[in-house]
Design goal:
Radius of gyration: 31 Å
Order of helices and strands: HHEHEHEEEEHEHEHEEH
Number of domains: 2
Largest sheet: 10 strands, mixed
CATH class of the largest domain: Alpha Beta
Distance between the termini: 101 Å
Structural class: alpha/beta
Number of strands: 10
Helix content: 25-40%
Oligomer: single chain
CATH superfamily of the largest domain: Periplasmic binding protein-like II
């Protein structure tokens, strides 16, 4: 057969062509299997709400910041939940009175607690997270009673209500420890408010937003009260983890997620 005859020969139809087709199919099938394996690995490695590690934090009823009946369980709880999710943890809250909140963490029934103010004394036992909110602290008093002061020592003649277990301010608590300020311990903010209204105490230390929230709830004791314009301090709010190896790891993990989200510090504090 000459060159011309060879050039005009029909394409191969036998086993050679079938073999080429099979190789093409095998290549596509292999690529498909590799893609499926990659997608499966991604699905297994991606965080899933149902499979996320559980983080149990103890807290109290302190609306509008935290509350079992509030939307999202409160504005600070929402922020803590967002940060926890970013850290690959599913937040579970345990509500209790404040003294039991602290006890629960110390006995190991919770992995941490919030919201807490900065305190040199508490920092001996707990790792503090980055700030997750702010709290403006002042004094409530009867609107028909004049309350004038420039220094905390000016409050010495008064009976001042404080919630048992709360940090107030370092200076305030120091003056209480020295016996210069007289305090009456209350179990809750609402009880402190009612005691001021009834005249059983002259004033009470309270967060401004908590006071405003209690007024909105329509408790009759609030109608006769005012929040003094002189502010004691503005606290940052934190999640606290025990000073253990596990607590240290949780604090570092939480803070990394908070910084990655940009969820550090105080949002605008209402006036």
């Amino acid at each position: 057969m000459g060159v011309a005859a060879w050039a005009e020969a029909p394409p191969a139809r036998g086993p050679a062509r079938l073999f080429a087709g099979e190789r093409c199919i095998a290549a596509v099938r292999g690529a498909t299997l590799r893609l499926a394996g990659f997608l499966l690995a991604c699905a297994l490695l991606a965080p899933s709400p149902g499979l996320a590690e559980k983080l149990v934090l103890s807290t109290l009823e302190w609306p509008p910041f935290v509350g079992s009946e509030l939307p999202g369980q409160g504005r600070v709880a929402e922020r803590v939940r967002e940060i926890s999710a970013a850290a690959g943890m599913r937040l579970e809250l345990s509500f209790a009175p404040w003294k039991r909140v602290l006890l629960g963490v110390r006995t190991g029934s919770a992995q941490g607690y919030f919201p807490e103010y900065r305190s040199a004394e508490r920092e001996k036992d707990f790792h503090y997270s980055v700030s997750v909110g702010c709290s403006v602290i002042g004094l409530i008093h009867r609107s028909d009673a004049t309350l004038e002061w420039t220094r905390l020592e000016d409050l010495a003649p008064l009976r001042i209500g404080v919630v048992d277990g709360y940090v107030n301010t370092e200076e305030f608590d120091r003056l209480v420890a020295r016996g210069i300020l007289r305090t009456v311990k209350c179990n809750s903010d609402i009880l402190a408010m009612r005691m001021v209204s009834a005249g059983r105490i002259d004033a009470a230390v309270m967060d401004r937003e908590v006071f405003r929230h209690l007024l909105k709830q329509g408790d009759p004791s609030g109608s006769a009260l005012s929040f003094h314009p002189r502010i004691l301090t503005t606290h940052t709010l934190h999640v606290c983890f025990p000073r253990t190896e596990a607590g240290s790891l949780l604090a570092e993990r939480f803070d990394r997620a908070a910084r990655a989200l940009g969820a550090v510090g105080c949002p605008a504090v209402p006036h």
